[in-house]
Amino acid sequence: MTVFSCKAAFDSLGLERIRPSHAHASQECPICLDPLAVHPIHNTDPSSILHAAIRILACGHVVGVECLETWLSVGNTCPTCNRILFQAASEPITQQDVNNILHALSPMFGEDRVMGEVARLMVWQAEENARLRQIHEVEMAKLRATESQVRDEEFKMSSDDFLDSDEDVDFGEGDYMDLELEEGEDTSDCVE
Fold it and tell me: What are the protein's UniProt keywords (predicted)?
């Protein structure tokens, strides 16, 4: 299943930069097999073969940034699992394309038959584009829901946020009983 409708959408929403951390396991880029910079590095040697890492959100695979850019310039799949990441760019059929097809195929198959196939192809292309837009919208809704859930989780109160006993906070108990009642007020409802 295609995750994003185009490469631009994938580039902006389908990737997550990896922040170097000591918690990450050492990894090699599956494309070039050079080590990825997933640990904090104090030496910034420009001749180092380590390169920045990026995670493909659709499948979770981690690759080198430059390698992925090169890989996706000629394809539309994950280099590790071959999952389709975005719809490959397809050019719409132009009038010149139709004329060329008619000129080449109508002597063999007849103009009506060729035009029927071209019309079917155009309908299929329109339906496919509509399907891809719908998939993209669903994926965007899922992404927004996930982001919202993550934000909500950040602000959710945990058991550590609650006080364990009444001794931790002095609410000034008894102070409210010192209030003077105005003359004639009914005190039968008051709890002492």
Answer: Metal-binding, Zinc, Zinc-finger
